[in-house]
Each structure stands twice: as structure tokens, then as C-alpha cells.
Amino acid sequence: MRPGASSLGALSVPLEKRLSVSHHFFMDDLDFLRKAIALAEEHSLSSTAGPFGALIVRNGEVVGEGWNRVVEKRDPTAHAEILAIREAANHIGTHVLEDTVLYSSCEPCPMCLAAIYWARIPRVVFATDAEDARAIGFDDALIAQELVLPWEARSIQSSQALRDEGKEIMEKWKRKPDRTEY
Ligand SMILES: [Zn+2]
Q1: How many whole angstroms from 78 Cα to the centroid of ligand 1?
Q2: How far is the CA of 96 from the CAs of 7, 85, 131, 132, in angstroms?
Q3: Rounded to whole angstroms, how far apart are CA atoms 67 and 53?
């Protein structure tokens, strides 16, 4: 079975059932969430970091942490959750984080949420939400709106060409007997 196949199955739990458990907390949740908030506070008050922190926990142990380092690293993708995912994957030694929980001081933005899906992280606990972030100038509503549009309708100008040439490489890879699917 492909590494992600089983966890994608888990994500197909009916929405009704998912909603019914979305406010269920475990004993340690608030402790870990406070640690994520503390990371946000510690770094944003002492450096150029934005006020966001995140932790990844596996079997009760912190395996990755991150805080917003976009300005410091001159990296627009250096959000707290992305850095925590990179550290956790490195620490655990796999790109599949299906037995972890992500704690974030703020609801993940669309980029981080997509990374959470790619990482197969099945559970996220957060403190502030997108509306709170918007109130201090971090507005990701446009990205969320654009994501559901077909690419031709998005504000980023996109053009498609050379599809057959690109596809040839894909098919070659698909025929490669020693390929690693993920
Ligand atoms: Zn983000």
C-alpha cells in the first residue's frame, strides 16, 4: 500500500462525524497549545518574527517546533507550521506524519493547511483564528477565495503549454519499476 493511502482513507470520514468531534479536547491539548502560544510570544517580542508559533507532538513528545521566520529568513514560506513540519519529518525520519498532532497559536493559513494535508497530519488544535489574524494585518482570505477558482480565473496569470512533453516525463516515471510513490 502507498504510504499515504491509509491516511487519506481516514480523511474521508463523513463531515457530520468530523464536526461532532471537532471540539473534543484531550488532557494535554491545552498544555501543548500554550507552548505554541509561548513560542509565538517569545519570538515575536524579541525579533522580527510574526506572532505565530507551532508544535508537532507524537505520543506525547514534541518532535518539531516552529515560529514565524519569514522576515528573518527572507523566506515567504517560513510560517510556524511549515517549519514545525520540516523539523518533525526530519526528526521522525519520514514525510508521513500520520500519528502526530499539530498545535498552532493560530488557525493555519491555506499554505500551511495544504502542507498539513500533504504531511497526513490528522489533527490540528489552534488558539486564534483567521479572523483574529486579519485584525492585525495578516489577511489570507484572498488566497482561500482564489484556491477554489479554476486556474484561468485566478488573479495570478497562469498559462498552460507543452502538456504532451511534460506528460511524457510523468509516464516514464510511472513505468519506472523502482519509483517511490508518496
Ligand atoms: Zn501559514
Answers
A1: 8
A2: 9, 10, 30, 30
A3: 4
Would you call 81 a catalytic residue per the annotation? yes
Ligand 1 centroid, distance to 7 Cα (angstroms): 22
Question: Comparing C-alpha atoms, which of 112, 120, 62 is closest to residue 88?
Answer: 62
Spatial distance between the Cα atoms of 105 and 38, rounded to a whole number of angstroms: 8
Amino acid identity of residue 91, one-letter, is H
Q: What digits encode the pLDDT tens for the residues 77-106?
A: 999 999 999 999 999 999 999 999 999 999
Distance 104 CA to ligand 1 centre (A): 10
pTM over 0.90: no
Express each pLDDT in 13-40 by its tens digit. Answer: 666 666 555 666 777 999 999 999 999 9
Asked whether 7 and 117 are in contact (CB, 8 A), the reply is no
